[in-house]
Amino acid sequence: MFDRFKAFLTALIAGFVLCADATADVRLKDIVNVEGVRGNDLVGYGLIVGLDGTGDGVRNSPYTEEALSSLLERLGVNVQGEDFRPRNVAAVVVTATLPPFARTGSQIDVTVSAIGDASNLLGGTLIMTPLHAADGNVYAVAQGPVLASGFSAEGAGAEVTFGAPTSGSIPQGARIEKEIKFDFASMESLRLALRSPDFTTATRIESAINGAFGQQIATVLDPGTIEVDMASAPMKPVHLLGRIENLRVSPEQKARIVIDQKSGTVVLGADVKISRFAVTQGNLTITVRETPVVSQPNPFSRNGETIVLPDTTISVDQQTERRIGMVEENVSLSDLIEGLNALGVGPRELIDILKSVKAAGALHAELVLM
């Protein structure tokens, strides 16, 4: 019986289950963030011109008309009292990320998204747009031709849209005008923040750093934070961090099973363990069919009325074939993967079985449902 059940998880490798191995050594820069070294979000409101009749309907988007009038006034064109309704202008929200240590004059990518009823931004050009940070100050100015991320086409009786033609990007479309001051070289200590906090991983990082420099410069503060004393380090802060981020450690991960119920994908961690349990699976199909009957009165009847009579048919189909299997104590992931395939269990059934095993207390792993 166990031989049949041992194939129950080979289906995972066959297509609907992946196995995660958390034993590989990785660089510190791939699992930690340096506190204070981060990007800053920028946002702005601008206009895109040059569209082929696919811009905002000014009557439906009055803010586009106001912004266009203000732009023309600043350029010396008086449009007060004029009745103009261009269809080649669209109002957009412009977003970007100011990277850490970015300097004045550097260029960054921006994304534009229509906020009116424009149908397509293809071929448009963004007019000079200031980009503000959360503090309200302007840190960059964006301008340039837009690369739309989709297209749309329509005829007299059909329409097709691919992607999102109402949004796009401008590579290197913003120029940094103001820097965010951050004196990294004068810092006496810095903190490394683990992206997935874990006690074991934090202590391994502490040991790796202290072992690499031959002195106690790293201290674990909590499962997600390691503090590095740069004042007592044998080199400058920039060189120190450049060496630290390339040290390799083996991160520890929790035993975890991630289930994507939409696609039927199951990802199992390498440390997943299962205690002794038995499983049985059968198919029970109940079909309820409604066939209402309409009863009408005789022709030319004065007092008769049409009524609907219910007619319900219920059938029960219980298949005799059942899948039964037993798992011994402390079965490893490799044994489990060899198991569930022989029973012919599909991805949906597999997900239901794993949920039931977890509810029974025999699955020693965290179950994450997406």
What is the topology, as strand order, of the major beta sheet?
A: 4-5-6-12-8-7
Q: Based on helices, strands and strand pairing, what is the structural class? A: alpha+beta
Radius of gyration: 32 Å
The proportion of strand residues reads: 35-45%
Low-confidence stretches: 1-22
Q: What gross morphology would you assign? A: flat
- Overall mean pLDDT stands at 77
Number of strands: 25
Number of helices: 7
Largest sheet: 6 strands, antiparallel, barrel
Total domain modules: 3
**Helicity, in percent?**
10-25%
What separation lies between the terminal Cα atoms?
A: 33 Å
Pfam families: FlgI (PF02119)
GO molecular function: structural molecule activity
Subunit structure: The basal body constitutes a major portion of the flagellar organelle and consists of four rings (L,P,S, and M) mounted on a central rod.
Subcellular location: Bacterial flagellum basal body
